[in-house]
Amino acid sequence: MVINLPEKVKYIIDRITEAGYEAYAVGGCVRDSILGREPDDWDITTSARPHQVKALFRRTVDTGIAHGTVTVMLDRDGYEVTTYRIDGEYEDHRHPREVVFTSRLVEDLQRRDFTINAMAYNETAGLVDAFDGMGDIQRGMIRCVGCARERFTEDALRILRALRFSAQLGYEIQEDTVAAIRELAPSLAAISAERIRTELVKLLLSDHPDYLRQAYHMGVTAVILPELDRCMETPQNHPHHCYTVGEHILHSLWGVPATQDLRLAMLLHDIGKPPTLETDSQGITHFHGHPSVSAGMTEKILRRLRFDNSTIATVCRLVEFHDYGNNVQPTPVTVRRAMNRIGEDIFARLLIVKRADIMAQSPYRREEKLKLVNAWDNQYRGIVAKRQCVSLKDLALGGKDLIAAGMKPGPELGTVLQRMLEHVLETPEDNTREKLSEIFLKVT
Length: 444
Description:
Elements: H1 7-18, E1 23-26, H2 28-34, E2 43-46, H3 50-56, E3 60-64, E4 69-74, E5 77-83, E6 85-87, E7 99-101, H4 105-110, E8 120-122, E9 126-128, H5 133-139, E10 141-142, H6 148-154, H7 157-169, E11 172-173, H8 175-184, H9 193-204, H10 212-217, H11 221-224, H12 226-232, H13 245-252, H14 260-268, H15 273-276, E12 278-279, E13 285-286, H16 290-304, H17 309-320, H18 332-342, H19 347-359, H20 366-385, H21 399-404, H22 411-426, H23 433-443
Parallel strand pairs: 2-5, 10-11
Antiparallel strand pairs: 1-2, 1-8, 3-4, 4-5, 6-7, 8-9, 12-13
C-alpha cells in the first residue's frame, strides 16, 4: 500500500524522524487516502514529546499540549502533531481525566475509536494496521477497536460517529458494535448539543441520510431527536402516502441536494404531524395545520441543537411553506405574491423541497402534482428573468424618494410603500419612477 503524502506532511515526518523519533500520518487521512478520497486534513502522530516537536520547527501553536498536541505551522497551513498516548479514565463520557505518553505506536492506535481510523502510514514503514482496518474497509464494516462497550463508555460521541461513518461510507456496523450502541445510547445525554449537531449534520449530508433509520432502531434518536421517533411510529393511512410519517421523511431526504438547509428542511418538514394526527370515521388519517406546527417545532429543535439564527430562519420558512399552493394553479400574480410572502431568497429551494416531498409519497396523482410544481417553477423563472418587483426593496420608488417629495417619515409613509408594492405585484410594468410618482404622489 502506497499513499501519496503531501509535501508538507512528508517534510514534518522526515524532520521528526531525522531527529531520531518516529512519526506517521494517522487516522482519517490514512483511511480517506486508501478509499481514494481527498482528506480534509492530515494528522501526524509521533513518539516525540510535545517540547521535542516544538524544538524542531520554527512556528508551532500549543493546540492541546496537555494532551500531547502541537500544531506545526508551515506557511499558512497548520498540521496537528500528537505524541503517542494512552488515555486515562474517562469521567464524562467524552474526555479522559489524564493522558499518559507512550513510546509505542500500537498503544496509541489501540485507544482510537474504529479500526478504519486506527491505521498509520509513513514512507519507510508503509501501512501500520494492527487492528485489521484494511480488512474492515474491504468488508464495508464499522467496527470498534477492541471492546466496543469500552470505546463508547470512554466517549459517547463515538456512537454518533459510528452512525455517521456508516452513512458516509455506506458501511454496515458490526454486530458487537451495534449491541454496544443500543446499550449505551442513553449516555449521549451527556454530550453537548454542539457536538451532536456536528455529527447529525455530517450524517444528513452523506450519501445515505436515510441511515438515520439505524439511529432510530438503535435507540439513538430517542435521545438526540425524540420527535423523529414519534414520526417513525405514526401511520399515514391515506391514498397520498405509502409510508409512516418517519419513513416518508427518510425517503424525502434523498430528493434534495446535500446542503444543510435542504436536508434539515426535509428532516423536519413533517415533524409536526404526530401532534396533529386525526383519524376520520373511515380510518383515513389527516394532519390539518401540520406545516405551521412543524415550523414551530423546527425552531425549538434547531435552537436546542445550537444552530445559527440564519439557518433556523431559513429552515423554518421552508418547513412552514412546504405545502403552499399545492392545489393552486399558478398565474404570474399568484406567484409574485407567493414570492413576496415566502421570500424570493428561498423560493427556488422551496420548489426543490416540494418535489422531494412528492417523490416520497405514494404514486397516487404523482404526475399531476409534479406537473403543478413545474408550472409554479416556470412562472417563477419568468418573473426572475424579467426582474419583476416582488418586495419593497425592488420598488422603483423608495422611502427616501417619498420623503424627498415632501412626505413625513412615519406610519403613513409605510402604508404608501405597501400600497405601491401591492399595485406592482398586480401590474409589474408600472414599477417605474415616473408611473409610481404619477399614481401615488398625486394621491398623497
